């Protein structure tokens, strides 16, 4: 089977409110970032499948004959995805020699690639291809790197399998898929997330697929089209952590102390809803200091709740203290336990104040930068629309 070469990209995300609570059926508000993961899929004739994942130092290849043995039992349909095929996951774990509890970066990325590849091609002829992924996102830091990776894999492999068409016309630089096709990409990306996360809510892959700002509740995705322009500082504490472990830890706490933890989750839900209401007011009436005061208080309350859930970290406390000394409010974003935090800048925060805050956070050993939010969701690119330095990496392999 011959596949067509293509480039795709998907954005990372920041969760404004609702991380962890969203896994338990509460509202989350999330927004796409201007940092993206890029994927190049290249057709080959060597009878092999190769993946190059330079961000995580992973370069692997398999003969098609090896992979064919894994799909002898396979009867799956690529347009019907509900839950993970446990037998395929078991075979793949055995094939790459990884145990059920493994959190190894390389194994998780490999497992989710092979799972999607075999699920989408397993009922027909397996194509020979090389897939290279490069991301501007820090890996495992709370900015949805796993979801951006899974969304890129799903879009590229669905296209290569013929389940969805490549949307790019000859004269275009970038193009997006239609709603129905995006839903299919999102549902396959969710499978990839299930392999990496264990029990994802689906909010991260939804942002990677649709981009912009979303309200997410129990799998229901509502794009928020009218949102004010927010200035946000992103800080990466560089403390490594695993989303899978943190999500499992919160679940254990809820099971152990339901009467204590359920009200915390309800309160986070109310924070997301209040934040959504304030953001909407800010688009239809003059923005006042009081709007910002409320947004800041919501950030503080939620950060305390996240500490109660057990997903804080001394480095995140430090972020909150340093920014509060400058009159700015921060909370962790994503799974916490280290990783990244967001700081809301007020309209009157001048660039000198922003710069000195960034410098103080860098002096703590953190990475810190002002970010723009609301980038487009998954898209196909022509080669010339991919930034030169990224194209160079993707074409190197
Ligand atoms: N650029 C990449 N190349 C290959 N694998 C990646 C890449 N980015 C992420 N991954 C996979 O995703 C895993 C990290 O996912 P994890 O969910 O723990 O962090 P995150 O998605 O960055 O944070 P969060 O889920 O809190 O937003 C890595 O271990 C790796 O398997
Ligand atoms: C911690 C969590 O709520 C967000 C991770 O970005 C997990 C999830 O929603 O899948
Ligand atoms: Mg993730």
From TrEMBL:
Question: Under which main EC class is this enzyme filed?
Answer: transferase
Q: What is its EC number?
A: 2.7.1.36
**Single GO MF descriptor:** metal ion binding
Q: In which pathway does it act?
A: Isoprenoid biosynthesis; isopentenyl diphosphate biosynthesis via mevalonate pathway; isopentenyl diphosphate from (R)-mevalonate: step 1/3
Q: Where is the GHMP kinase C-terminal domain?
A: 294-350
Domain GHMP kinase N-terminal as annotated: residue spans:
122-206
Q: Name the UniProt key words of this record, in alphabetical order.
A: ATP-binding, Cholesterol biosynthesis, Cholesterol metabolism, Cytoplasm, Kinase, Lipid biosynthesis, Lipid metabolism, Magnesium, Metal-binding, Nucleotide-binding, Steroid biosynthesis, Steroid metabolism, Sterol biosynthesis, Sterol metabolism, Transferase
SUPFAM superfamilies for the chain? GHMP Kinase, C-terminal domain, Ribosomal protein S5 domain 2-like
Q: Which InterPro entries match?
A: GHMP_kinase_C_dom, GHMP_kinase_C_sf, GHMP_kinase_N_dom, GHMP_knse_ATP-bd_CS, Mev_gal_kin, Ribosomal_Su5_D2-typ_SF, Ribsml_uS5_D2-typ_fold_subgr
Q: Which GO terms describe its cellular component?
A: cytosol
- Quote the Pfam families the UniProt record gives: GHMP_kinases_C, GHMP_kinases_N
Function in brief: Catalyzes the phosphorylation of mevalonate to mevalonate 5-phosphate, a key step in isoprenoid and cholesterol biosynthesis.
PANTHER family documented for this protein: MEVALONATE KINASE
> Per its record, how is this protein called by name?
Mevalonate kinase
Q: Which organism is it from?
A: Pundamilia nyererei
């Amino acid at each position: 089977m011959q596949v067509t070469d293509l480039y795709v990209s998907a954005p990372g995300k920041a969760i404004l409110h609702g991380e962890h609570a969203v896994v338990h059926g509460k509202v989350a508000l999330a927004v796409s970032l201007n940092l993206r993961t890029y994927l190049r899929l290249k057709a080959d004739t060597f009878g092999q499948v190769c993946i190059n994942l330079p961000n995580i130092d992973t370069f692997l290849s398999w003969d098609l004959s090896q992979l064919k043995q894994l799909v002898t039992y396979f009867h799956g349909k690529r347009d019907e995805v509900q839950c993970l095929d446990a037998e395929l996951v078991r075979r793949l774990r055995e094939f790459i020699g990884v145990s059920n509890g493994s959190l190894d970066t390389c194994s998780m990325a490999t497992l989710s690639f092979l799972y999607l590849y075999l699920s989408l091609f397993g009922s027909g002829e397996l194509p020979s291809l090389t897939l290279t992924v490069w991301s501007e996102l820090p890996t495992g830091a709370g900015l949805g790197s796993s979801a951006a990776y899974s969304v890129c894999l799903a879009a590229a492999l669905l296209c290569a399998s013929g389940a969805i068409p490549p949307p790019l016309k000859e004269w275009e630089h970038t193009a997006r898929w239609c709603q129905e096709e995006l839903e299919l990409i999102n549902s396959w990306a969710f499978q990839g997330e299930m392999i990496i996360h264990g029990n994802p809510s689906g909010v991260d892959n939804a942002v990677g697929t649709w981009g912009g700002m979303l309200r997410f509740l129990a799998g229901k995705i509502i794009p928020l089209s009218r949102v004010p322009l927010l200035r946000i500082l992103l800080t990466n504490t560089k403390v490594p952590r695993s989303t899978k472990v943190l999500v499992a830890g919160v679940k254990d706490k809820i099971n152990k102390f339901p009467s204590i933890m359920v009200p915390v989750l309800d309160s986070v839900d109310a924070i997301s809803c209040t934040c959504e209401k304030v953001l909407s007011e800010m688009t239809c009436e003059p923005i006042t200091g009081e709007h910002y005061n409320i947004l800041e208080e919501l950030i503080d309350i939620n950060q305390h709740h996240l500490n109660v859930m057990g997903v804080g970290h001394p480095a995140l406390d430090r972020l909150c203290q340093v920014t509060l000394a400058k009159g700015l409010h921060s909370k962790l974003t994503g799974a916490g336990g280290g990783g990244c935090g967001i700081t809301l800048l007020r309209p009157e925060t001048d660039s000198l104040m922003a710069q000195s805050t960034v410098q103080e956070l860098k002096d703590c050993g953190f990475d810190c930068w002002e970010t723009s939010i609301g980038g487009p969701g998954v898209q196909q690119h022509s080669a010339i629309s991919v930034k030169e330095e990224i194209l160079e990496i993707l074409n190197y392999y």
